[in-house]
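Quick log. Single chain, no ligands specified.
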Amino acid sequence: MTLEEIYRKYERLTLEICTSEASHDNTLECAGAMMGQAMKLYKLVLSPEDFDALMNIISQASNLDTDGWDDDFPSGTLH
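-> predicted structure:
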C-alpha cells in the first residue's frame, strides 16, 4: 500500500469510529487511542534519538490539516 492509501484507510476508520452513535461523545478518546498506537509504532522502528526528535516536532505542531472534517463533525471541531 502507498502512504496515501494507508492514510485514507485510517481516515475512513477514524471517521467511522468517531462519528458512530456509540462513540459520538468520545472523540478525544478515539484521538488518544490513535496517538498511542502511532507512538508505539514510532518507538518500535525509530532509534531513541529519532523518536525523541519526532516527539519534539509533534509537541510543537500548530498547523494541522483538518480540511474535510468539519462536515463530519456537527460542532465544527474535533474536541
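The longest helix spans residues 27-45.
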